[in-house]
Write a structure and sequence with these properties.
CATH superfamily of the largest domain: P-loop containing nucleotide triphosphate hydrolases
Largest sheet: 8 strands, mixed
Helix content: 40-55%
CATH class of the largest domain: Alpha Beta
CATH topology of the largest domain: Rossmann fold
Length: about 525
């Protein structure tokens, strides 16, 4: 039973401590593990080697006032299992173990009177419950799921339990290979559940055993340097890039949750994809090749902003002869020097922060400045000044759409500076590109839907006058200056590339999107 639910008074763990079967420290450790991976406290005490199964059953029997049974020492023939339909065995999580003069059923909670009444109604017989450990019941139910009601052998269940309990989690390289081979963007590792892949917007769990806190600590140590381990011990959260010589480069975030480690890793392709491969229009290329101005790439986290920015930088690196300086946290795509010099600086290693890196950036004679993400007013101001004084500046922001991006940039400054920032932004901004990765209709992978805002004379006026909210209402249809994400989603839907429902998940103006695809798109 869970420690948080009473089986009478006192609770199971407390009774075991009172009788000297386990220590208070053992109970504390078991409760900590329960908070991390879930499950019943009794089964966790067995798994951790603190109590024997028979000892636990003895105490459960005393607490509940019913007999106990060890399923690993019981053989259940097919005719006994078939006394109750399989769907009812699943629903009530009970197991018939004896029929005859009396019907004996194994239960994790024999005080579940509603379940008992329902079973007795189905059978037309009085049922006598016996208590069994939750872990044994789970193994027995899984065995029935696989083999049907063809009988159970206690010894086979015990061997199955040994495989589950002692089976080693795959090493980190095996998991990263799964990520590389699957059509997935990320792998998520968390104690209590199997490793999971992120495919589009869906989480898919691998058919593996749930990871333990010890597994997670081992994974973290295997991919962090000693210096990174020291930083993580202080901050409980760390971003960095990890390279495997066989599988390539991965962006990593490690963080603490519920007293254990969790890890998210994203595979970064070795080759930087081009515009057409990403689904970006060719008319973006002239903006990327300008000598001066600000380009902002926005959208939710995990929707390809860094990849789009890397593609633009690679275009400059190929087409121009200039000096490119980047500030990244961490460095994801590694750029080779082509016609340009590309100096990539990593936050925390090459410079302490984005702000510190930007303070001295003009001394590095940059032509193009790439800022992984602008997070504070000082960084924004330096970036705007750089874009206004002969430099091409790229950056990313987490914002929902192109027009809200402009307001977010302005709102980060104190009210007495916002009028000046509006003027500076209106003069220096070239383009805002807001993007979403949307799952294709055939589920083969994501496709890009984007919103484009070009800073024409009309848009400059809106920005200066504080009327950016009017851009969306006045320009629902695509044009030279502005094309909304809703138009892009509707087009993808009408072309049969995404479903109506998938587009609806990402639409900004739901009513406009629904009207645009009404009767046209695939479902």
């Amino acid at each position: 039973m869970t420690q948080g639910k009473k089986l009478g008074k006192p609770m199971l763990g407390e009774i075991l401590v009172q009788y000297g079967i386990i220590t208070s420290n053992m109970l504390k450790n078991a409760l900590k593990r329960q908070s991390q991976v879930g499950g019943q406290i009794g089964s966790i005490l067995i798994e951790m080697g603190y109590v024997k199964t028979d000892t636990l059953l003895q105490f459960l029997s005393k607490q509940l006032g019913v007999p106990a049974a060890n399923l690993f020492k019981v053989d259940i023939p097919p005719e006994v299992l078939k006394v109750l339909p399989l769907d009812k065995i699943r629903e009530y999580k009970v197991l018939p173990i004896e029929i005859g003069e009396k019907f004996t059923f194994a239960m994790v909670n024999p005080k579940d009177h509603i379940a008992l009444q329902n079973i007795e109604f189905i059978l037309g017989k009085r049922v006598h419950p016996v208590v069994v450990p939750a872990a044994q019941m789970e193994i027995a139910l899984k065995s029935i799921e696989k083999g049907g009601q063809e009988g159970l052998k206690g010894r086979a269940l015990e061997q199955s339990s040994s495989v589950v309990s002692h089976g080693k989690a795959p090493d980190i390289k095996t998991l990263l290979r799964s990520l590389s081979e699957a059509r997935a963007t990320d792998i998520q590792l968390t104690a209590g559940v199997p490793p999971s892949l992120k495919q589009g917007t869906e989480l898919v769990r691998l058919k593996l055993q749930p990871l333990t806190p010890d597994d997670m600590s081992s994974y973290a140590r295997s991919i962090m340097s000693p210096e990174q381990q020291e930083k993580f011990a202080v901050a409980n959260d760390l971003d960095f890039a990890f390279t495997d010589h066989d599988l390539g480069r991965f962006r990593v975030n490690i963080y603490k949750q519920r007293n254990s480690v969790s890890i998210t890793m994203r595979h970064i392709p070795d080759r930087i994809p081009g515009f057409r491969e990403l689904g970006l229009p060719d008319d973006l290329e002239p903006f990327a090749l300008k000598n001066q101005g600000l380009i902002l790439i926005t959208g939710p986290a995990g929707h390809g902003k860094s990849t789009t920015m890397a593609s633009m930088v690679d275009l400059i690196n190929t087409s121009r002869r200039c000096n490119i300086v980047t500030l990244e946290d961490p460095i994801e795509y590694l750029h080779k020097h082509k016609n340009s010099n590309v100096n990539q600086r990593e936050i925390g290693i090459d410079t302490m922060s984005f702000h510190e890196g930007l303070k001295h950036i003009f001394r590095q004679d940059p032509d193009v400045i790439v800022i992984g993400e602008m997070r504070d007013p000082e960084s924004f101001k330096i970036a705007l000044q750089a874009a206004d004084s002969g430099h091409l500046v790229f950056s990313t922001l987490h914002s929902r759409n192109a027009t809200s991006t402009i307001e977010r940039v302005i709102d980060i400054f104190p009210p007495d500076q916002q009028a000046q920032i509006r003027v500076l932004l209106a003069e220096s901004l070239l383009l805002v590109l807001s993007q979403r990765l949307v799952m294709k209709k055939d589920l083969s992978g994501p496709i890009l839907a984007f919103e484009k805002l070009v800073n024409t004379y009309k848009i400059k006026s809106f920005i200066r006058e504080g009327k950016t909210h009017q851009i969306r209402s006045q320009m629902l249809l695509p044009g030279e200056e502005y094309s909304s994400v809703d138009v892009a989603l509707a087009r993808l839907c009408i072309e049969g590339k995404i479903t109506v429902e998938e587009g609806l998940k990402h639409a900004d103006n739901v009513a406009f999107y629904q009207e645009s695809v009404k009767g046209k798109g695939p479902r």
